[in-house]
Amino acid sequence: MSIDAKVVKDLRDRTGAGMMDCKKALAETDGDLERATALLREKGLAGAAKKAGRIAADGLIGIFSAPDCKSAVMVELNCETDFVAKTDQFRTLLATLGAALVTAAPVGEGGADSVTDLRVAGGGTIGELLKESIANIGENIGVRRYVRYVSADGIVGQYLHGGGKIGVVVELVGADASYAELAKALAMQAAAAFPRWVSRSEVPASELGGEREIFRQQAITSGKPDKIIDKIVEGKIEKFYAETCLLEQEYVRDSDLTITKLLAQAGKEKGVTLTVPRFTRYQLGEGIEKKQSNLAAEVAQQIGQSA
Fold first, then answer.
1. Residue 116: which CATH number?
2. For residues 62 and 204, what is the distance between their CA atoms, to the nearest angstrom?
3. Rg of the Cα trace of the chain?
4. By residue range, what is the domain housing residue 160?
5. Is 220 domain-assigned?
6. 78 & 31 share domain
7. What whole-number distance in Å separates Cα of residue 51 and Cα of residue 53?
8. Residue 302: its pLDDT value, please?
9. Do residues 29 and 175 share a domain?
10. Tally of CB atoms within 10 A around 287
11. Sheet strand arrangement including 71-79
C-alpha cells in the first residue's frame, strides 16, 4: 500500500526511528500510526526522543503564587518567535496575565466564561489586551493553557526552568510553609524526571495493558523461554512504574531515595504525614510541532549538579 509521506514523518518525529524503519512499520500496520508506534517499540527501534517532549511554539511559561505558599497559577503564553518571547513587552504581558488569573475566580466556576473574558488591572479584558499586543508586536500571541492550584491542607510548590521553558506546580498536603523547600524540590523532580502520574494507581488500565503487550512481544522476539516471559514482563512493568510515577521515581538529588521515602523521611522529622495528591508539568509548546527537544535531559543534568 502507498504510505503518505506526512504520516511517515509524523511517526519518525514521534519515535526517533529511521525513515525506512518507519515506512516498514506503517506498511505492516496498514498505515495505522498508533500500531506502527507500538511495533517500533516492540522491535526496539523507537528512540527515547518521544519522552523528551515535542517542542514547537515559542513563548514563556509563568508561575504566580501567593506569599503563604497556599496557591499558585501556572500559565503558558505563546508567540511565534523566541525573539519576541525575550522582549520586555512580552514578559510584561505575561505578568499582567498572571496577576489577572491569580485574583480572578476560576473560569467557568462563578468567574468569566473564558480566559479572554477575565478583567485585568487598569480595566479591559485579557482578550482586548492580547489584541492590542498582537497589533503592537506584529506576531500572533495566545494563551494556550493555565492551571490554578489552591491547597486547603498543605502548600503548593513551584519550579521554573530555563527562564520559562518548563514549569511545574505540585501540591504537598500535610505541610506548612516550613516545607517550602521540599515542595520546590518535588517540583524540580517533576521537571527533570518527567513523571506522567503521581502513583501507579493512576495509570490507566489501557495504558498498562499496552505496555504489557509490548514487553511480552519484545521478550518473545528476543527468544526468551516461555516459562520466564511473565516474570520478565512484570519486571519491566515495575521499571515502567519507577520511571513514570512520581512517588516511585529515584530522587534526582539522592539516588538512594525514592520520592516516597523522601516524603516519609521529611515528615518523620516533625511527626507529620506528607502526601502529593497532584502535580502539573508544562513544557513550552509540547505536542504542537514536530521538532524534538532534549530539554528534559538538560534539566535533569542541571538539577543533579546543583545537589
1. 3.30.479.20
2. 30
3. 22
4. 58-198+247-305
5. no
6. no
7. 6
8. 63
9. no
10. 10
11. 58-65, 71-79, 142-150
Q: What is the CATH number of the domain that holds 5?
A: 1.10.8.10
Bridge partners, residue 61, by sequence = 76
What pLDDT does 103 receive?
A: 75
> Exposure string (b/e) for 202-229, b if CB count within 10 Å is 16 or more?
ebeeeeeeebbebbbbbbeeeeeeeeeb
- pLDDT digits over 60-85, tens only? 999 998 888 999 999 999 998 899 99
C-alpha cell at 152: 486547603
305: helix, strand or coil: helix
Taking the model in full, what pTM does it have? 0.75
Residue type for 161, please? Answer: H
- Do 186 and 271 sit in the same domain of this protein? yes
Q: For 70, which DSSP code? A: S
Sequence-distant (6+) residues with CB within 8 A of 209 are: none
Show the DSSP H helices in the chain as ranges. 5-15, 19-28, 33-42, 49-52, 82-85, 88-103, 126-137, 180-193, 205-221, 226-244, 259-270, 295-305
| Assigned C-alpha cell, 233 | 514482563
Q: How many other CB atoms are there within 10 angstroms of residue 256's CB atom?
A: 7
Beta strands 250-251; 254-258: pairing state: antiparallel
